[in-house]
Amino acid sequence: MIVDYHRPAKLEDALQLLRQTHLKYIPLAGGTAIDRYNKEDIGVVDLQDLGLNQIHDRGNTIEIGATAILQMLLDTPQLQSEFKKAILHEATYNLRQVATLGGTLVSASGRSPFTTACLALDATLVIAPEGERVALGEFLNLRNGILNGRLITQIILPLKVDFRYDYVARTPADLPIVCVGVAQWPSGRTRVALGGFGQTPKLAMDGPRNDGADIAAMNAYSQAGDQWASADYRQEIAGILVKRCMVG
Amino acid sequence: MHMPMKTNLTINGKNYIYEAEPGESLLNALRRLGFYGVKHGCETGECGSCAAKLDGKMVNTCVCLVAQADGHRIDTIESLGEHPDQGWKSTVGLHPLQAAFVESGAIQCGYCTPAMILAASELLSRQPDPTEDQVRDALSGVLCRCTGYLKPVQAVLRAAAVMRGEDVESIGTSIPIPLGWIPGEGEQDKPESDVLPGDLQPSASSKVITPMRVMPRIQLAPQTESWHHVGKPEIKVDAIKLVQGKPAFAADFEKRGMLVAKVLHSPVAHARIKRIDASQARKLEGVAAVLTWQDIPRVVYSTAGQSDPIPGPLDSFSLDHKVRFVGDRVAFVAAETEAIALKALELIEVEYELIPELFDPGSALQPGAVLIHDEPEYVNFAESDPTRNLAAEIKIDIGDVDKGFAEADRIFEGDYEVPKVQQAHIEPHVVLTYWDEDDRLVIRTSTQVPFHVRRQLAPVLRLPIKRIRVIKPRIGGGFGGKQEVLIEDVAAHLTIATGRPVLFEYTREEEFIAARSRHPMRIHMKTGVKQDGTITANAMYALSDTGAYGCHALTVTGNTGHKGMALYVGDGSYRIAPNIRFYADIVYTNHPPAGAYRGYGVPQGYWAVERHMEKLPENLD
Q: What is the ipTM of this complex?
């Protein structure tokens, strides 16, 4: 239950609140996942006045403020069209108007299309106050530990990368049972990320070439069975989706 | 309790100073301020029925804090249009979107309609000539459980055309017979889009897939020209209030001094309440009443909304000293606010004496199985037998089934399962009760069965039927889930206890743990066939899990066989005298109760029969 609310105008003030110990304070970005905190008493630090929603094109990369909303990314021409497909799959129109990049990554489960896409693209997070740069893959496994009293201010994505996304779900708008993001750099480097299962999306491959990407995906989901689908099914589908992304 | 915060809200151009709890949702604030066009649906941002515009952008207000909206501009459906006829006063009338939703028949239950219209207005403000894809994306944040999106998409495209100043098809005009289309010459088999009149054909350039049709294809005989209604379009009788988001639903109604009710649900699946102490809860400031099984009459009844005599066992109590599923009722609370009521629930001390649980319907009939209903008040109906956990039993034989199997060349057997499914109407169960000026107990409830509510609750409340008045306003979807006297007694008992109006509304979580569902079934099919595929005998056995209570147990499962087993009856002499068997056991378990759900038992049977018949020829030589 939310028992305290603050809307600081400065990043330093926000960080100070997040370091409070008398009550657990969490950052409030868009608020679309706020209903998860209905059991324990918490305070929230609303980030809307911090101006962290700027987008800067740096040529090979794009720097996106952590409170930029998902809809802003759809309206950013530099981003890959298949990346936008993952954003559309992540949230409905209403939720895209408030859900932020940072909030989506922090609250993502393994079924998050957007996080899967960012993982494939090897997104980098910038974390205040030190400005430390952390790879998304590293962050996802240690989310709460890394952020304790700190705040994501920026996400950096590569632009000169070919990116493909595909998925299988019960309906076109449902969250995926399996989704795949495949990023291929001009150098041949290939990253394959899988979503649709577990606590976080999973990196299946990061190699200098794309050989064996489908096999790597199948191996990565060899134990991915739950109430939505068996591991056998997910393995098979993961391999097929990776092949489609390679061909497409 | 926490210190309220003072917030400045600008709603539909007017400023409000609102004192909010830090965690209060914008949805709650808007409704408390009287903006009932925003609806309570899911509490998680999934359904969008609560959507409003925040600085011109669509936002689901159930996942937006009031504090977040402080200083921003909020627009609700109440900012759009007004009734076109207000006597001597001239009005701007409905907004073109509202008019188009009315004219296009884009409203079913109307619960999501205000949010859809707002979403469409946001779209048209930035894109006056949208493609169908853009319309569908704009509406994607609002979940319609009733109709789907065809008619709303048509309505938005129609309104967009009107707002651009283009001509649109008149609502009062019947669609003429298309040129070149002569009935009886085979053209009627073409897909509808192929035989649309030229002016209604979707244009390729506009990327519109959904044609902007208002009327279905109707051919009128000449003499119908003089009829007033037949063959002419009529708008839904309450369409105009629904497109304006007027307070049409059960929760959209306030009474002075109204209390909020909450229910303490059982955390265990099967137990006796050894001790219950509500004294601390009753002492909490703002609590008006706490009721346990010790405080109200012990009257056995059925919650199934069915005609008298109820075709099922009487096995329920408003409150009991035994709980039979996780989510079963333990106590009722009425308080000045929801927060106080929730706090009071935490203060109720309950000591449970656990009883072994029964979750496997296959074990329910076994000798020695734990009994779900051992109360002496239990009233049987037909073959129900609580000493065997049997809520209902069906045994139907048509023809000579054993002889039919003996005459078969091959016998095929198969097992099929249907899981538990929730109705998921967007409007939760909600009820408001109060004493009226004639000392009648008014029950304003979101129900599909108002007359059953009155009749069935009269003995439970110890009131004569004539002193109960049930009002069924618009309901935001039911799908059978509201064919149940599910929560009306909670508010009614609390109004009797306090003398005050009481509002009780389920949360989405309660809809899943403490409402009803489709009956899960295990169905065994056995079919005898001749080598040429002729069916000589067909038998179905359904094991139906009614959960903790036998509401709709017999009648739902009856349909499973009555309808499904009529589909395949053999040929030749076997068609003249078919051999069909339908047996069913409907058993109690410690699962949440099942009940009515659209199709009422038929989908379970159709699935088994059709899948079995599909597999059968694959296995014939």
A: 0.95
